[in-house]
Every structure is written in structure tokens, then in C-alpha cells.
Amino acid sequence: MVRVQRQQLREKLQKPYDIFEHTYNFNIMPMFDKLSEETEDYIDYLAEDLMREEGITSLSSDLQKYVVEEGITRQNMYLLMQYNMRLMWISTMYQFWEQQVRKFLFDESIQSGYTQFDENGTGISFEKYCINFGQIKDEFTSFGQNLEELNCWSTINELKFLANVIKHGEGRASTNLEKIRPDFFKSEITDSNLMKLHRTVLNEQVLNIKDSDLVKYKVALQNFWEELPDRPYCEIQGI
């Protein structure tokens, strides 16, 4: 019975990531395909509006150049928004997982009868429980689970660095991420670190992140729940 309950919990925790992937592929990205198509309509509208405003039947070379540049600007903005959406989707998926893990651990602690106390001897409430990832790792260790021994851990650790880079930009996380994924920091036109050049992550397309990376992270997050033991942690510890 316990094994069945744990499998049901496992499947419940894994299922949202299928929804993340499906929504991204069939709702989010197709939206940008439509926006890209609208660029041509925008160029036509802008040209017609200029001719009507100027009382002319054709555009001069300068006005044609202006219309084309405006179309390119709008298209580039759509591409930037698409890039941002990919990064935000990946980041949200990681934050979703981290909150899943935190609640999972807290529930396991309650079931085990194990309570952490603060310096005043007061039981720690959920709002103060495992408030950073280091504490989450330590809590798993206290239950006998070394997260770094999981097969999926290297990918999740990579994702953790990436989520921090998306949020904060250049810093310790970007240094760590570049060591393990230098390809993220190289564009198709240069080997230079574009994030250092532009001093931003979201205002310019500086990270070479692909949809295949999103899928890889989604699988790793699901595998995390697959690799955890079937038995409750309170039983593992003999509590």
C-alpha cells in the first residue's frame, strides 16, 4: 500500500512538467510564429499609411528604407521576446521544482515527527523552512539522501546556475555555468561572451539556449522524483 501511495505521489509530482513542455510547444512558441507573419502586414500597413499621409502613390527610396528598417526592428523585437520567453519558461520550471521539493521535505518531516527548532527553541514554521538550496541539500542529507549521487543531479545543478543567471545576470552563477556550458555564452557569429559585452541577459539575446535544453531540463526534473526511494524518508531513517 505504501509503495502504491508513493508511486501515486511520484506521478503527481512529475506530471506538471509534461504540461510545461506541451504548453510551451503548442501554445507559447506558435504564438511567435504568428507574430513573425504579422511583420509583413505591419510593413504593408506602414507603407500605405505613409503614402496616404504624404499624398503619394509610391515611396521614395528613403521612405522605403525607413519602412524596411521599422519592419526589421519589429521582427527583432519579436525574436527577443521569444528568447525571453524561452529563458523565463526554463527559469519558472526550475522555481516550480524547487518549491515542490521544499514542500515535499516539509511534509516528510511532519510525517516523521521530526521538527527543527530555532535558537529560541521554537519549532520552525514552513515560511522559515529550507529557504535556500543549501538548506534543502542539507535536509535531504539528514534523511540519508545525498542529492549529488543522483544521476540527474549534474543537469539539475546546471539548471540551477542557469536560473540564477537569468535572474541576476553576470556573477558567480554565470562563472560556474560557463565552466560547464561554455556553448551557452557563444553566439553563432562570435565566440565572445555577449553577456559581458551587453551587460544584460534579457535586454539582448546573449545566451545560446535552445528548445532542446528546455526538454533536457524537463526530463531531469522528472527523473529527480523517479530516482528518490519508494519508501518514505521517515522509514528510511527508522523514525
Give the amount of beta strand, in percent.
Answer: under 5%
Secondary structure class reads: mainly alpha
Strand elements, count = 0
Uncertain runs? none
Tell me the number of helical segments per DSSP (H or I, 4 or more residues long).
8
Helix and strand pattern: HHHHHHHH
Report the major sheet.
none
Whole-number radius of gyration? 24 Å
The shape is elongated
Q: How far apart are the termini? A: 19 Å
Q: Overall mean pLDDT score? A: 87
Into which percent range does the helicity of residues fall?
55-70%
Report on this structure.
16% of the residues are buried. The protein has 239 residues and is mainly alpha-helical. The chain has helices spanning 2-54, 61-112, 133-142, 153-168, 172-180, 194-198, 211-227, 233-236. The chain starts with a helix and ends with a helix. Helices cover 69% and strands 0% of the residues.
Key terms:
single chain, 239 residues, mainly alpha, 8 helices, 0% strand
Write a brief structural summary.
The protein has 239 residues and is mostly helical. It has eight helices and no strands.
Write the layout of secondary structure elements.
Layout: H1 2-54, H2 61-112, H3 133-142, H4 153-168, H5 172-180, H6 194-198, H7 211-227, H8 233-236
